[in-house]
Amino acid sequence: MASVVCTGVVTADLVFRLPVPVDAPVKYRATDSALTAGGCALNAAAAVARLGGAAHLAGSVGADALGDLVCAEMAAEGVATGLVARVAGVPTARSAVLVGPGGERTIANHRDPRLFAAAPVLPAPFSFDAALADTRWPEGGAAVLAAARAAGRPAVLDAENPVREASGALRAASHVAFSELGLADWAGEGDPAAALERAARDLGIWVCVTRGPAPVLVHDGAALFEVPVFAVTAVDTLGAGDVWHGAFALFLAEGFAPLAAVRRANAVAALKSSAFGGRSALPDRDQLDRFLKEHA
Ligand SMILES: Nc1ncnc2c1ncn2[C@@H]1O[C@H](COP(=O)(O)OP(=O)(O)OP(=O)(O)O)[C@@H](O)[C@H]1O
Ligand SMILES: [Mg+2]
User: What gap in Å lies between CA 187 and CA 198, rounded to an integer?
Assistant: First the structure.
């Protein structure tokens, strides 16, 4: 079983499903709702565990009721939380999430900077098969990715906006997966293919950009590739990118070539997006294999 350490932001999410798009300061009546653990690193770790990998979450929550909720949900998912710090007197990061009729999400997040005062202390020598970090905890991400890279393991950065603040993590990574806004933050507005080529050249590593329902663009330093996503009726895309990154890191850890890992991660994220409520539709390995066979 391959292991992945997922470093970054951990939240509690209050999620509402709305029958209309969010476009005015009015009162909305939700048709469904959920209180669930979330955040980039946590969603990624949950995806790793669901797919049968050994998932380790490195993050920080408050010593409060929402921190208890997060830790209980991770235990139920089979995610190891030994690297999750509980910080007394600081609230667990939290988000209010509105999911619209096309599965699109609007998020308000609050995270207290004191949650990120200290970088995680990993066991030495680095003992995981891959590392994943997000840009929400730049120092923590840089430390974990550097340790993975020094050990010769895949070191994946989920490069969401703001990317410029995470220059240490960018330099430490072996694989950078930008979001559309993350790539625009790094390269400025313009053609994403050209920006990606520049990123591959300047960073000297493998890069890609995920673009929601549009194909993932990949540049391996030599050539540009386009990997189509899977057509599903999107019901809830909250955390689609997060589970994509967790799955991608796991498949690299398992020895898949990067393009194959991208295709498989696309399938995991598409399946996740097909039902409402956090991680309810996250596939296990059998469900993923069946989906890939049906869409071969
Ligand atoms: N509507 C959709 N239909 C099918 N797949 C989707 C859809 N939205 C997202 N995905 C899958 O999830 C991947 C990541 O999505 P996206 O690029 O939106 O991530 P993101 O911008 O990091 O957002 P977040 O992290 O908030 O989910 C896509 O590359 C695709 O594989
Ligand atoms: Mg994302």
Answer: 8
Query: For atom 11 of ligand 1, which residue has the closest CA?
Result: 269
Kindly give the number of the ligand 1 atom that is closest to the alpha carbon of 265: 31
The structure tokens listed for 32 are: 């469904």
pLDDT in tens, 122-174: 888 999 999 999 999 999 999 999 999 999 999 999 999 999 989 999 999 99
Please report, for residues 107, 223, 246, the alpha-carbon distance to residue 279 in angstroms, rounded to integers and kept in the order given.
16, 35, 13
Q: Cis omega (within 30 of 0) on the bond before 125?
A: yes
Cα of 164 vs its chain's centroid, Å: 18
Burial (CB < 10 A; 0-12, 13-18, 19+), residue 25, is exposed
CA nearest neighbour of 243 among 218, 205, 280: 280
Tokens coding 151: 């050990």
| Structure token pair of residue 171 | 């330099």
Pocket of ligand 1 (CB under 6 A): 103, 160, 179, 210-213, 216, 229-230, 232, 234, 237, 239-242, 244, 266, 269-270, 273
244-280 pLDDT per residue, tens: 999 999 999 999 999 999 999 999 999 999 999 878 8
Query: What percentage of residues in the chain have a pLDDT greater than 90?
Result: 94
User: 288, 268 in Cβ contact below 8 A?
Assistant: yes
Which pLDDT band, with edges at 50, 70 and 90, does 286 fall under? very high
Cα 220 from Cα 206, distance rounded (Å): 5
Q: Mean of the pLDDT values across residues 44-64?
A: 97
Cβ(249)–Cβ(130) under 8 Å?
yes
